[in-house]
Specification:
Blueprint (H helix, E strand, L loop, with lengths): L1 H10 L5 H14 L12 H11 L14 H17 L1 H9 L2 H10 L8 H17 L1 H10 L2 H13 L3 E3 L2 E2 L11 H17 L10 H19 L5 H15 L21 E2 L2 E2 L1 H16 L3 H18 L1 H11 L16 H8 L5 H14 L4 H8 L1 H11 L20 H6 L3 E2 L4 E2 L12 H20 L6 E3 L5 E3 H19 L3
Antiparallel strand pairs: 1-2, 3-4, 5-6, 7-8
Helix pairs in contact: 1-2, 2-4, 3-4, 4-5, 4-7, 7-8, 7-10, 9-10, 9-11, 10-12, 11-12, 12-14, 13-14, 14-15, 14-17, 18-19
């Protein structure tokens, strides 16, 4: 700590840039140790570091720091300190450091700054917006951060526009985005994710909608291009998907806006390139099977909401994920098709993963219970149906067309023999009561009733029933409600 104090005081003097860099390198090393942070987490210490980074906004005019190595090392120090110290996070908010950062980012188009400085500018902005809600709101509202970061992303990707919401691309494969541009683009995407976190939940006016559609068109372009290497491309696309999920639902139409061109994937007259890439991304994540909640839920939610609001998207996804049934000999969760993999997730131990997978398939079935059970089996579907109060069947309210589901000849032939619980054709089992007398059957039935009664009284199980509303309830409540409903119906009919 004593060394840290001396280094900060030393930096306050007028030194040669080489001496400043040496001091800052030492501070960067010390800032990794949480026990040495106190001298750096004071107003004076942070002011000194932000001044050397060229982003101190406490002065009327930001003093220009000519040496780029000094700026870079100062930014690295600030990143370490802000990440590790809640006190530093509070002080940077009070010092309005985000204003200085935003001013410099706005000048990227005019000033030639090296990649490393831009990268750590963006990394520091990401940390500040991730760790402080007030800074997040300040950047989004006061500093018009969504527009600023969208322009910065556009500059980083070096795109040209063909139409208002379509990026111009040459025929053939697009070249991979260079490594440095990819690194900066990912930091921008992370900052945008932080400041748009609640955008999908609120109504936006036409001006904001145009801004989000412009951003959505850029994100579509991000999906269409690759980065340097498969792992980096996967990471780049992951950040893109996360941000797409934050956009207002009505702005997701830009994914389908581009015209159908030679080499495009066309469905119902619409360009489905972006949706197809999202589906491939989902399947890769499923096959990887690692950290399913973090890796799967964003893309599942995005595809679910897109399918809910865009008929062409839903029909395309259904054709790919739930094609007409032919194999009815195996359970819906058995196999390597995308449908099989998603049905397996419906009984996953993680509630969020289970819910997202079920919701996606339910929307593809136009929220029809009978169709949902047909493709997944009642046993797999029970969790979502119970949560929605649809155990007795029916359909959720939604804006869906009335076209019927098409059945294959194989399905029509096997349908009478399909077990709705397992969702497959099962061999008929021998009747266990065959050859018994009526007295023996009654004895076995009472024995079973007594076993259930004992388990219920000892609270090992709780018998449940389906209420008229379709929700599950303890059996005695369900019987009581059904009786009340019947008596109410009888009185309405004038029956005693």
């Amino acid at each position: 700590q004593k060394m840290a104090q001396l280094l900060i005081k030393f930096l306050e003097r007028e030194l040669q840039p080489s001496c400043q860099v040496t001091c800052l390198e030492s501070i960067r090393i010390l800032s990794r140790d949480k026990y040495c942070l106190d001298p750096f987490t004071t107003k004076e210490g942070l002011k000194t570091l932000s001044r050397h980074a060229g982003i101190d906004y406490s002065e009327e005019v930001i003093r220009e720091v000519p040496d780029l190595d000094v700026i870079l090392e100062s930014l690295k120090c600030l990143c370490n300190i802000v990440f590790s110290s809640p006190r530093a996070q509070e002080l940077t908010a009070e010092a309005r450091l985000v204003v200085g950062l935003a001013k410099r980012i706005k000048l990227y188009n005019e000033r030639s700054l090296p990649h490393e400085v831009k990268f750590f500018d963006l990394r520091l902005l990401f940390l500040l917006t991730a760790l402080r809600v007030d800074i997040r709101q300040q950047l989004a509202q006061e500093l018009r951060g969504i527009s600023l970061m969208t322009d910065t992303l556009e500059l980083t990707l070096a795109v040209k526009w063909m139409d208002p919401y379509e990026v111009a691309t040459e025929e053939g494969l697009l070249p991979p985005l260079p490594r440095q541009e990819t690194e900066r683009a990912m930091e921008i995407l992370k900052v945008l994710f932080n400041i748009t976190f609640d955008s999908s939940k609120r109504e936006v006016d036409e001006e904001d909608a145009a801004l989000y559609r412009h951003l959505g068109a850029l994100l579509r372009h991000c999906l269409m291009i690759s980065a340097d290497g498969e792992d980096r491309t996967e990471e780049f696309h992951s950040h893109t998907v996360n941000l797409l999920g934050n956009l207002p639902l009505k702005c997701l139409d830009v994914l389908l806006t581009p015209k159908v061109r030679p080499g495009s994937l066309e469905y119902m007259g619409v360009n489905m390139d972006a949706v197809s890439i999202l589906l491939d991304f989902l399947e890769r994540r499923l096959d990887r099977g690692h950290k399913l909640k973090e890796s799967l839920t964003p893309v599942l939610n995005l595809l679910t909401e897109s399918a809910r609001v865009h008929r062409q998207t839903r029909k395309f996804l259904k054709a790919k994920v739930l094609p007409p049934l032919r194999d009815v000999r195996n359970r819906p969760e058995v196999g390597n098709s995308l449908r099989n993999k998603l049905v397996r997730l419906m009984t996953h131990i993680d509630t969020d993963v289970k819910h997202c997978a079920a919701e996606f398939l339910f929307v593809l079935c136009k929220e029809s219970v009978s169709r949902f059970v047909k493709y997944t089996g009642y046993g797999n579907a029970a969790g979502l149906l119970a949560a929605r109060g649809l155990m007795a069947g029916g359909r959720e309210e939604g804006e869906y067309s009335e076209d019927e589901d098409t059945d294959t000849e194989e399905y029509k032939e096997a349908k009478p023999n399909i077990n709705p619980v397992t969702g497959r054709v099962e061999e008929k089992l021998p009747n266990p009561m065959e050859g018994m007398t009526e007295e023996q059957k009654e004895y076995e039935a009472m024995k079973l009733v007594n076993m259930f009664d004992k388990l219920s009284r000892e609270q090992v199980i709780q018998p449940m029933g389906i209420m008229p509303s379709g929700n599950l309830a303890p059996m005695e409540n369900a019987i009581h409600d059904i009786a009340d409903e019947r008596s109410s119906s009888d009185s309405d009919l004038g029956l005693d």
